[in-house]
Write a structure and sequence with these properties.
Elements lengths: L2 H24 L8 H10 L4 H17 L8 H29 L7 H16 L4 H5 L6 E4 L2 E4 L5 E3 L10 H17 L3 H10 L34 H13 L43 H16 L4 H20 L11
Antiparallel strand pairs: 1-2, 2-3
Helix pairs in contact: 1-3, 2-11, 4-5, 4-10, 4-11, 5-7, 5-9
Length: 339
């Protein structure tokens, strides 16, 4: 063996010994090693691209000689990256859906925001981007039993299985579409809030679904826009992030006289209500609502405390390391000859 060949073999043996020692210190298996273990090893032991490729080649050769799957192969890395991303998405969905199920949907002014925000969390947890949610039309979403089907270009099913007890994707969607359908035909904030307070919406299941955005902005007084206008992707992201971090602002009832319907008569259109004339009185808030809402939110955050931002940070780091290793392996990696 030439002098250069001997030096190369010594370098490979050194890199392999470094990996074995690192695995022992980290209390993880060196043989067989996972792709995540290899990526973390490379991340914690910086070196030139040539040195990192040499390490991957040495570790892969050791695994092949032992009849194990090489953790540094491109296929193994891609599978590990896909699995890491899928696990993070699944955990984030569970968090978002738990938060959505805990939001208020009747009894007060805040229920209006709760119904809408629950749908935003539901769709975000299902994997839709904020841009996709902003562009989603009501006609593209339908309940199927307890599940929710998002059609159009998305073709996503949100299954009721695994949802918190007493709630389902279809329930969350139905509560918000009640608000949208009623507001389309009776654009009065006070009338809408009274319906929310009493949870006394009429049966509108037989009415045709009117086109319009799913994500509708609501101002601080609870007014929905006259014309069907969608929230921006940035606004949706802000709402979802606020719920995830527990920084959602308190929603208070509008003072008397600040109602959108004050100077407008309610439109009858094709909706027939036996009690269409509703007294325009001020909203009486349930004195126990805020206490219960705060308690529910605290319980939700307590459940999520162990799997919140820290877990996301760890997963994002692992994904970044795997992607970095994949990028590194873009060049040819030669396996060393047996030492």
């Amino acid at each position: 063996m030439s002098r250069s060949g001997a030096a190369s073999q010594a370098a490979y043996r050194y890199e392999l010994a470094l990996f074995v020692d690192w695995c022992a210190a980290a209390e993880v298996s060196a043989l067989p090693a996972s792709s995540v273990t290899l990526a973390e090893f490379l991340g914690e032991n910086p070196g030139s691209d040539a040195a990192q490729r040499r390490r991957v080649a040495a570790i892969d050769r050791r695994h092949r000689d032992a009849g194990c799957v090489a953790p540094g192969s491109v296929t193994s890395m891609r599978v590990a990256l896909d699995r890491a991303r899928a696990d993070r998405v699944a955990r984030r969905a569970a968090q978002d859906w738990l938060l959505a199920s805990a939001l208020p949907w009747s009894g007060s002014h805040a229920a209006l925001f709760g119904r809408r925000d629950a749908v935003l969390l539901l769709l975000a947890g299902a994997g839709l981007s904020y841009t996709a949610i902003a562009g989603l039309d009501r006609s593209e979403v339908a309940a199927d039993g307890g599940d929710l089907w998002v059609g159009g270009a998305h073709r996503v099913r949100v299954a009721a299985e695994g949802f918190p007890d007493g709630s389902s994707p279809a329930d969350i969607w139905a509560r918000w579409t009640q608000v949208l359908a009623f507001s389309d035909r009776y654009p009065s904030t006070m009338v809408l809030l009274k319906r929310l307070r009493d949870n006394s919406f009429p049966d509108m299941s037989g009415l045709e679904v009117r086109p319009g955005p799913v994500a509708v902005p609501i101002d601080r007084w609870g007014h929905l826009p006259f014309l069907p206008v969608s929230m921006t992707a940035a606004a949706i992201a802000g709402v979802v992030a606020a719920h995830r971090t527990g920084t959602v602002p308190s929603h208070i009832a509008a003072p008397a006289g600040r109602t959108r319907g004050a100077d407008n008569r309610e439109r009858q259109d094709d909706l027939i209500l036996t009690d269409a004339v509703v007294e325009q009185d001020s909203v009486v808030l349930d004195p126990g609502y805020y206490r219960r809402g705060v308690a529910d939110r605290r319980r939700s955050h307590a459940v999520l405390a162990d799997v919140g931002g820290l877990a996301d940070e760890v997963d994002e780091r692992i994904e970044a390391l795997l992607q970095r290793t994949l990028d590194l392996l873009g060049g040819a990696v030669e396996s060393p000859d047996p030492p």
